[in-house]
Amino acid sequence: MSSLSLALRDSSTMLRRNLLHARRYPSLTLNLLLTPIMLLLLFVYIFGDVMSAGIGGGDRSAYIAYLVPGLLLMTIGSTTIGTAVSVSNDMTEGIIARFRTMAIHRGSVLIGHVIGSVLQSIASVVLVGAVAVAIGFRSTNATALEWLAAFGLLVLFALALTWIAVGMGLISPNAEAASNNAMPLILLPLLSSAFVPVDGMPGWFQPIAEYQPFTPAIETLRGLLLGTEIGHNGWIAIAWCVSLTVLGYFWSASKFNSDPK
């Protein structure tokens, strides 16, 4: 077999392994998934009328439309925390040392984690999106091409955050530290335009909300699903995704190859 065939075979085996782990131990994924769902229900049913008035909407449905794109991306950030924990467990429980004694492609371990995490992230997004539709979210005249672009953005964003989460898992001495190290993936959406427009924030805080990866991705997703102005946010979101993917890949590969465990 060629090296490419071996890499594909071993990566698919590691992918099946990670998906089986996720199926057998669903509590971590479910706990992380509950955060965006609870925030969705909280902001819609408790704060929805007030927040809708604050952004100039006529009723609660206006705020549901505003809120959902941000929470879909927040769901990705929440799901990838489980990836950091899973990678840390692999590195500290001795299984990686066993894999290194076997005739398998070296990078297949990380590739399996990454692909499995992206699949779980998209499945979680679909679930949160279904809850959003059930409580009143509706897309506004989005074409098939815009839906495809929105899906592509979600996959690209999931890939970028997953590689960063893998790196965080590799540098963590245990699962608790991995969870803490990956916590910014949940906190950053809270500091973005996910819940309120950047223009409505205090002046000193606006640069924090604007110059981070979540805000341009959220504004791009809103534009695709709701027909709002995207402007330059689309290119900025893609640039963030590509940069984080490259950074996370080289960081993870370097740490994995040099780790003595």
Automatic annotation (TrEMBL):
It is found in: Cell membrane; Membrane. The keyword Transport applies. Pfam families: ABC2_membrane. The chain crosses the membrane at residues 25-48, 63-88, 109-135, 147-171, 183-205, 234-252. Residues 27-259 form the ABC transmembrane type-2 domain. Keywords: Antibiotic resistance, Cell membrane, Membrane, Transmembrane, Transmembrane helix, Transport. It comes from the Bacteria. InterPro entries: ABC2_TM (IPR013525), ABC2_TM_bact-type (IPR047817), ABC_2_transport (IPR000412), Nod_factor_ABC_transporter (IPR051784). It is a multi-pass membrane protein. Belongs to the ABC-2 integral membrane protein family. This is Transport permease protein. It comes from Streptomyces caledonius.
